[in-house]
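Note on ligand handling. Small-molecule inputs were canonicalized before submission; formal charges were left as drawn, and no protonation-state enumeration was performed. Where a ligand contained multiple stereocentres, the stereochemistry in the source SMILES was retained. For zinc ion, this procedure yielded the string shown in the input block below.
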Amino acid sequence: MTRDKHDEARELIALGEGLSDAQQTWLWIHLDGCEACRLYAEAANGVVRVLRSLPLAADSRLVRATQMRVRFHASRLRETRERLWLVGMACLGVGLSATLTLPVLWRLFAWVGEWANVSSWVWQAGFMFFFIAPALVVSVLLLARGTHLTNNGEHSR
Ligand SMILES: [Zn+2]
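Structure output:
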């Protein structure tokens, strides 16, 4: 057998299923008498089988990975929205109550300062503390609530 016949056989093996009956018969006869080409054909068929089984496995893995990623992203978005909503409502509440109570508080502190006969910076400092304290408390509460939300999301994952 010449080298050309082996090359031809390997070409036919590479073509796989698209062979004519004559080519198929010729290849079988050649493979029957040539161990090197028979091993080549077995290896080629093995590769083809692996290649055929790969796309399915890759597909389901890819689908699962994509679904997980989408779900993770969605839960992240929801957490962010919940936290932003909480922060927004808290800011609104603090702003509203501050606007409503600020003039009253200011007058109350001025009156107390006058009644206690202290200099104006003392009652003004007291006023500032009472004005800032609720905002500080709300900030701390929001931070704690935000951490709580994050932890919940991570546990459910
Ligand atoms: Zn051969």
